[in-house]
Amino acid sequence: MIAMLMNCVAEKTNAHSDIIRSVAFSPDGTKIVSGSHDKTIKVWDLDKLELLSEEKTNAHHLYVRSVAFSPDGTKIVSGSDDGTIKVWDSDKLEMLSEKTKAHSDNIRSVVFSPDGTKIVSGSDDQTIKVWDLGKLELLSAKTNAHSQLISSVAFSPDGTKIVSGSWDKTIKVWDSATLGLLSEKTDAHSNWI
């Protein structure tokens, strides 16, 4: 029944040459960014699913696992298996800043804070890190935040909290300024988050 109610408004086949790991809407809802195992980042027009700018080939040395738009839509952040976080101009896909060795293992999730001044990252190294957007300087880090890899991180709408999900089946909520643990739910799912 649900399938009958859902309509596909646009489809792009062969959008990348390998697995697509992450997609995100621009804040104004007119664009989509995609990141892939083919190491590329692409920005698409939502209505036509046509490339809006030249794709960024070899955006990272290894898989691109996470992409997200800034709240104002002018920037894109990407995280990769190469342990690097990069910030891009969303129109031209020119790199604005880069943090090599941001994590010691694959970066699975990156996202901007609601005010666009910070980035949070989660990694296979079980660490959550908060970065200042300006120079990608580390503001805070929580090592051993989970007992297994961190698959997803997000800011609360007011920016005061960060939520993380992990392969340890746990959801945790953190203070975004101190990364102090506020609450957690163990066995939130029967399998990986």
From TrEMBL:
Residues 22-185 form the EML-like second beta-propeller domain. SUPFAM superfamilies: WD40 repeat-like (SSF50978). Signal peptide: none annotated. GO terms for biological process: proteasome-mediated ubiquitin-dependent protein catabolic process; ubiquitin recycling. Keywords: Cytoplasm, Repeat, WD repeat. It comes from the Eukaryota. PROSITE patterns: WD_REPEATS_1, WD_REPEATS_2, WD_REPEATS_REGION. WD repeats lie at residues 13-54, 57-98, 100-141, 143-175. Pfam families: Beta-prop_EML_2. One of its GO terms (cellular component) is nucleus. InterPro entries: Beta-prop_EML-like_2nd, WD40/YVTN_repeat-like_dom_sf, WD40_PAC1, WD40_repeat_CS, WD40_repeat_dom_sf, WD40_rpt. GO terms for molecular function: ubiquitin binding. This is Wd40 repeat-like protein. It comes from Chrysochromulina tobinii.
